[in-house]
Design goal:
Blueprint: E1 8-12, H1 17-31, E2 36-42, H2 55-73, E3 77-83, H3 92-105, E4 109-113, H4 124-140, H5 148-152, E5 162-166, E6 173-176, H6 181-189, H7 192-195, H8 201-213, E7 222-229
Parallel strand pairs: 1-2, 1-4, 2-3, 4-5
Antiparallel strand pairs: 5-7, 6-7
Helix pairs in contact: 1-6, 2-6, 3-4
Length: 232
């Protein structure tokens, strides 16, 4: 197994989640010469109100849209795990997939959804994705005895330095995206199957959200996260 280092890994439940929650930050990281890799857990094959769209066609469309958005941001690589939308389950297999990827790419920072958010973001796939990522990071990716077979493949333990959780109710870390907001918007517009109906409202809503995130800061626009320092 070849180790392919990337400083940042973004793990999301669906295509477009990264763009809504963290694309401005991703663009900042890329500008700082950080290699970023995306991991998308589901294929998004149910995210439509169009009754004429077939799930398999939608999945192909959303994969294309996600690749285009990643290219817009300068993301190094996009990995699709391919689970059906709304059917992501916390299984040992999912957790091991994530551990394998963490040990392969060896990121310093992992960005994912907050699994503990209630109400509006209380989506089944979000909860499962966030919890599986958290567990994969600690203790499974860190401990050499967790998966001896991965050691035999050349994938040794890896300790992630920090986790950034978006869609969080407890933000304590903000990133200035004033200079990368337009790039975030361009990436979001790549997801035409999801954002096309918003029209000009998309920019208005995203700008209002970013302004709200930055309301106590000296800059205009921000993305907000709950940050976990993995010091142990």
């Amino acid at each position: 197994m070849t180790v392919k280092p990337a400083q940042v890994m973004v793990v999301t439940p669906h295509p477009d989640d990264a763009e809504f929650g963290a694309a401005g930050t991703v663009a900042c990281l890329v500008k700082d010469d950080k290699d970023v890799v995306y991991v998308i857990c589901t294929n998004g094959n149910k995210g439509t109100s169009d009754r004429q769209t077939k799930p398999e066609d939608l999945a192909r469309t959303r994969q294309q849209e996600q690749r285009a958005a990643a290219e817009t941001l300068g993301v190094k690589e996009v990995i699709f795990l391919g689970y059906p939308d709304q059917e992501l389950e916390y299984t040992p297999e999912l957790r091991k997939q994530l551990v394998r990827l963490i040990r392969t790419y060896r990121p310093e920072t992992v960005i994912t959804v907050d699994p503990y958010t209630r109400y509006f973001w209380w989506h089944h796939d979000h909860r499962v994705c966030g919890q599986a990522v958290m567990d994969a990071i600690f203790p499974y990716a860190r401990d050499h005895l967790a998966y001896p077979d991965l050691l035999e493949e050349g994938l040794g333990p890896h300790k992630v330095n920090e986790i950034l959780l978006f869609n969080t109710e407890e933000p304590d870390y903000r990133v200035n995206i004033t200079d990368t907001f337009d790039t975030k918007l361009a990436a979001l517009r790549c997801h035409r199957s999801q954002t096309g109906a918003f029209g000009q409202e998309l920019e208005k809503r995203m700008r209002q959200w970013a302004q709200e995130n930055a309301r106590e800061e000296e800059y205009e626009l921000a993305e907000a996260f709950h940050r976990i320092d993995m010091w142990w």
